[in-house]
């Protein structure tokens, strides 16, 4: 996807009253976007994009690897691979613009999005709610078992659909886990549970924290790096 010399990657320009300078952003929702201050001379934009073309190509490639195509809204994935539990659930759609979107589960491994499937946000919320319930069923018992095996008690579990975090642990010992952990290979999902349980002892990433984590889960740092690089969550679910 590296642009040939002279060609620019596709982009849109957005004027923002709060912008004080020109910034480039790459997001799954809009692709490459140039944000300019109010009244900015737009004739300068192509040269700015050209200067950052390599940077933009790198980021566009990253989101293309997740299934994004320029100028298109990401569609629901045809299936949800629940890698953490070695299961794949087909995600079918039955479009009916007269009805509000609803999610049904006609079979153990089939989900059906029916109604106005053009209402992307509502459909995503339904799929997320389903994933949250599944994640609670899977990770609730797993977290309890690990917690007692490791001697690291926590106070409560919340399953959420955070956009940027796999998990977190509050000062009061409440562990939050992202429902999309279900889409990760089991060793990466488990890593996040270990990671958050160790935060019940250290609420930071200090050397002591890592020492504890590595002692309980050898190879933790490698798993941490693999988690950062993972592209297991379909782009449609990340919006
Ligand atoms: Zn952490």
User: In CATH, what is the homologous superfamily of the largest domain?
Assistant: Metalloproteases ("zincins"), catalytic domain
Shape: globular
Strand composition percent? 15-25%
**CA-based gyration radius:** 21 Å
Helix proportion: 25-40%
Beta strand count = 10
DSSP summary: helix tally = 7
Number of domains: 2
**Average pLDDT metric:** 91
Given the helix and strand composition, which structural class is it?
alpha/beta
Give every kind of bound small molecule, once each.
zinc ion
| CA-CA gap between termini | 22 Å
CATH topology of the largest domain: Zincin-like
Low-confidence stretches: none
Judging by the overall fold, what is the CATH architecture of the largest domain? 2-Layer Sandwich
CATH class of the largest domain equals: Alpha Beta
H-E string: EEEHHEEEEHEEEHHHH
Please give the order of strands in the largest beta sheet: 4-5-7-6
Explain the overall architecture:
The protein has 239 residues and is of the alpha/beta class. It has 2 domains: 12-64, no CATH class; 79-238, 2-Layer Sandwich (Zincin-like). It contains 7 helices and 10 strands. The strands form 3 sheets. It has a 4-stranded mixed beta sheet, with helices on one face. A hairpin with a 3-residue loop joins strand 2 (23-27) and strand 3 (31-37). The model has no long low-confidence stretch (mean pLDDT 91). The protein binds zinc ion.
């Amino acid at each position: 996807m590296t642009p040939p010399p002279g060609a620019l990657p596709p982009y849109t320009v957005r004027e923002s009253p709060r912008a004080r300078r020109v910034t480039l952003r790459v997001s799954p929702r809009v692709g490459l976007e140039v944000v300019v201050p109010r009244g900015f001379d737009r004739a300068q934009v192509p040269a700015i994009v050209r200067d950052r073309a390599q940077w933009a190509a790198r980021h566009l490639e990253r989101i293309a690897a997740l299934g994004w195509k320029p100028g298109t809204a990401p569609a629901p994935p045809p299936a949800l691979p629940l890698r953490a539990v070695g299961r794949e659930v087909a995600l079918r759609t039955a479009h009916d613009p007269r009805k509000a979107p609803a999610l049904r589960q006609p079979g153990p491994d089939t989900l059906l999005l029916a109604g106005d499937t053009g209402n992307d946000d509502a459909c995503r919320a339904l799929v997320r709610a389903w994933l949250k319930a599944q994640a609670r069923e899977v990770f609730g018992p797993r977290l309890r078992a690990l917690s007692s095996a490791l001697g690291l008690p926590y106070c409560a579990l919340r399953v959420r659909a955070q956009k940027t975090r796999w998990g977190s642990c509050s000062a009061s010992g409440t562990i939050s886990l992202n429902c999309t952990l279900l889409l990760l290979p089991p060793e990466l999902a488990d890593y996040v549970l270990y990671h958050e349980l160790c935060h019940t002892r250290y609420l930071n990433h200090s050397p002591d924290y890592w020492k504890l984590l590595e002692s309980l889960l050898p190879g933790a740092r490698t798993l941490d790096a693999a988690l950062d690089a993972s592209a297991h969550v379909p782009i449609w679910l990340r919006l």
